[in-house]
């Protein structure tokens, strides 16, 4: 009963936040001389009532589900992992590197996904070890590693995996290692089911296993968890490694499952910022795997409908970005405040413990 009440309250808060976000964004549009009604109609018609538009929303949601899971798992364990961005870059390129080998269809895709997951894990391992053994802030270390991986990815695209006939991109992923297209003529591929499966696995892990209980206990009250026998170092390493897997797979969905390119271009245009966007998606979804699925689809719809808002509502791209930002901020704010309260409580507990 208590859990049901908490769930209903969370849904009510999200609905209220959505209403506030759309109202505030509408006021901004009206103040600049645009029609909020026509803007919202074009947005929702394009993203959620049209087959191709909704397919675009689902395609956009696919990597966001995975990067949001990376952030959500860490937050549930009392950590602030923002390293999905960098881990995703290397995951995408590792998946491309699998096309240097010729393997049978099916097996080739599995190998490419394993490459991507391993790349994400290896890049997440160093910040995890630094946090677990030396107490180095995961915020600082993951920010640093994001920048390192970004320029490493630029170098790999331009020098190691470069297409010999087109210097602006990597080699094209072989057909045997691609995700099949789910709906012909769209960007949506079977990678969506990989993201949904990952969310289901993380949900089961967090709420139906002892390991998940330890992770959540470490986030709620690390001192009580430690007193109860939970090893904080083990939790930190596990959370980061699982997050590395989901972030690496997010990168793979962009190089193996987004037609028609099936490659990574210089500047990483189809990957850039998806890790950071995943943070917003995780907060909108209250850092819950099931909530993240719906939040990612909604966020993907906002992205998919942006072009239609420009075309039919005659709203410039900059104003569309403002509208998106206001709506996302309003939806993410309740969870953001909850996280701040949680971390503040932990700091107070630490200060009280040191004073004893």
Based on Cα principal axes, name the global outline: globular
What is the helical fraction, as a range of percent?
Answer: over 70%
Counted by DSSP, the helix tally is: 13
The assigned CATH architecture is Orthogonal Bundle
Strands, total number: 2
Counting structural domains, the number is: 1
Q: Classify the beta-strand content into a percent band.
A: under 5%
Using the CA coordinates, give the radius of gyration. 21 Å
Distance between the termini: 38 Å
Low-confidence stretches: none
The secondary structure category is: mainly alpha
Major beta sheet, strand line-up: 1-2
CATH topology: ABC transporter involved in vitamin B12 uptake, BtuC
Order of helices and strands: HHHHHHEEHHHHHHH
Largest beta-sheet details: 2 strands, antiparallel
Q: Could you describe the 3D structure shown?
A:
- The structure is a single chain.
- With 356 residues, this protein is mainly alpha-helical.
- The chain is built from 13 helices and 2 strands, in the order ααααααββααααααα.
- It has a two-stranded antiparallel sheet with strand order 1-2.
- A hairpin with a 2-residue loop joins β1 and β2 (166-170).
- The mean pLDDT is 90.
Task: Spell out the blueprint of helices and strands.
Layout: H1 2-31, H2 36-49, H3 51-76, H4 84-97, H5 107-134, H6 138-160, E1 162-163, E2 166-170, H7 191-208, H8 210-220, H9 222-227, H10 232-256, H11 274-284, H12 289-312, H13 317-355
Antiparallel strand pairs: 1-2
């Amino acid at each position: 009963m208590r859990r049901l009440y908490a769930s209903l309250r969370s849904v009510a808060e999200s609905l209220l936040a959505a209403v506030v976000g759309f109202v505030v964004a509408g006021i901004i549009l009206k103040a600049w001389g645009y029609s909020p009604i026509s803007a919202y109609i074009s947005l929702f018609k394009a993203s959620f009532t049209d087959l191709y538009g909704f397919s675009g929303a689902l395609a956009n949601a696919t990597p966001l589900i995975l990067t949001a899971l990376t952030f959500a798992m860490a937050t549930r364990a009392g950590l602030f992992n923002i390293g999905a961005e960098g881990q995703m870059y290397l995951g995408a390129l590792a998946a491309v590197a699998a096309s240097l080998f010729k393997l049978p269809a099916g097996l080739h895709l599995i190998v490419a996904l394993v490459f991507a997951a391993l790349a994400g894990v290896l890049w997440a391992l160093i910040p995890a070890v630094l946090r677990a053994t030396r107490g180095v802030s995961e915020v600082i270390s993951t920010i640093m590693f994001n920048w390192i991986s970004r320029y490493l990815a630029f170098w790999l695209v331009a020098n190691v995996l470069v297409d010999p006939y087109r210097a602006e991109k990597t080699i094209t992923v072989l057909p045997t290692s691609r995700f099949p297209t789910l709906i012909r003529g769209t960007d949506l591929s079977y990678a969506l089911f990989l993201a949904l499966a990952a969310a289901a696995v993380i949900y089961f892990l967090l709420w139906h296993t002892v390991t998940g209980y330890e992770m959540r206990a470490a986030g709620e009250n690390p001192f009580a968890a430690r007193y109860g026998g939970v090893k904080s170092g083990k939790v930190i390493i596990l959370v980061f490694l699982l997050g590395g897997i989901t972030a690496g797979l997010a990168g793979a969905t962009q190089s193996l499952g987004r037609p028609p390119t099936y490659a990574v271009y210089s500047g990483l245009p189809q990957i850039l910022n998806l890790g950071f966007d995943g943070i917003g998606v995780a907060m909108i979804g209250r850092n819950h795997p099931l909530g993240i699925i719906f939040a990612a689809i909604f966020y993907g719809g906002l992205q998919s409908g942006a072009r239609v808002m420009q075309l039919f509502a005659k709203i410039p791209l900059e104003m569309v970005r403002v509208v998106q930002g206001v709506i996302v901020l309003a939806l993410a704010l309740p969870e953001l405040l909850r996280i701040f309260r949680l971390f503040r409580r932990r700091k107070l507990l630490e200060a009280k413990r040191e004073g004893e």
